[in-house]
Amino acid sequence: MTRVVLAPDSFKGTITAADAAIALAAGWASVDQGAEFVHRPMADGGEGTVAAFEAAVSGSRRMPVTVDGPAGVPVDTFWLLLPPTDDAPNGTAVVDLGSTSGIELLDELRPWDADTSGFGQAIVAALDHGVSRLVLGIGSSASTDGGTGMLAALGARFLDVEGVPVARGARGLAHIAAVDLGALRPAPEVRVLTDVTNPLTGPRGAAAVFGPQKGLVDEVDSARVDDDLVRLAALLELDAALPGVGAAGGTGGALVVWGGVLAPGAAEVAELIGLAAAIADADVVITGEGSYDGQSGDGKVPSFLASLAVDAGARAMLAAGRITADSDTSLFAASASLTDLAGSSAAALAEPAQWLRAAGAALARSAR
């Protein structure tokens, strides 16, 4: 009997990691009916982080919360409560930025006004519940507010020259003259999951690299926000050059100021969901993501899973929405592109579950 561990990331914007795993299993089973499946949907701190924990950790519980979303309207969402453990006797809260302050919550980009208040409000809800530990995924940010919205929700005050709180979002950054952290909530153990290693400022910083994705339309806008973040870092006494503090529009840096520890997202998620134990006696490990390209080897879920599989003596396989010409698939015993199977990118995007089932069947045939 073939033991298959299914550990894909989400196919961003089209299908969750958990549903991708289900589709891959169905496809494999159509070829190998005796196979045993272990579902360990993965994430790296971005979209699907909460879902990955929910699928893998027995006894986890959704905790509903309504927050101020990045579009300026309330968002009904939830954070995840994991059961107590010896090192977290009051449980662990998993909160992701994507479902509270994420770019996918916007109908149109709001580069100056979107902020991270909702993320902070969800964290406050978890703190009020009394959890021992926070696990925070900070991918898919909608803003470049330096994490000021999040810190403000936790009790910080960002004041102009007259001592008045500044506007939310990147719009308010230029007017910050003083920061008051006196009422900031104390932090428990805080693990911050991200696959981004960018500094806060400079040519590889939050505004220059990620600002255009969030609507900063030209170099003038990016330079303005970068200058504002330089000033914010000085007020917060944050080293703007630290790797990862530019993640999520500077939210990584704000969390470091609060007391959080930045960690590689895929590795941390894998540890917390017991992935190594699941893979230990696997024959095959299937992973994947929406686009497997030249950057996928840099700490992303597929490359990380492939290394774990090889170390455990299992065959690593890849299913991806597309596999680009510049990607390195040499770590994988077999790979399948949904775009190739469907005949076009549009067809694959329209029916991801159908083509993931086809990919699962193709990978199973390759294993015979």
TrEMBL record:
Molecular function GO terms recorded: glycerate kinase activity
A biological process term (GO) from this entry: organic acid phosphorylation
Cross-referenced InterPro entries: Glyc_kinase_flavodox-like_fold, Glycerate_kinase, Glycerate_kinase_RE-like, Glycerate_kinase_sf
UniProt keywords, alphabetically: Kinase, Transferase
Pfam family membership, one: Gly_kinase
Source domain of life: Bacteria
Family assignment from sequence similarity: Belongs to the glycerate kinase type-1 family.
Record protein name field: Glycerate kinase
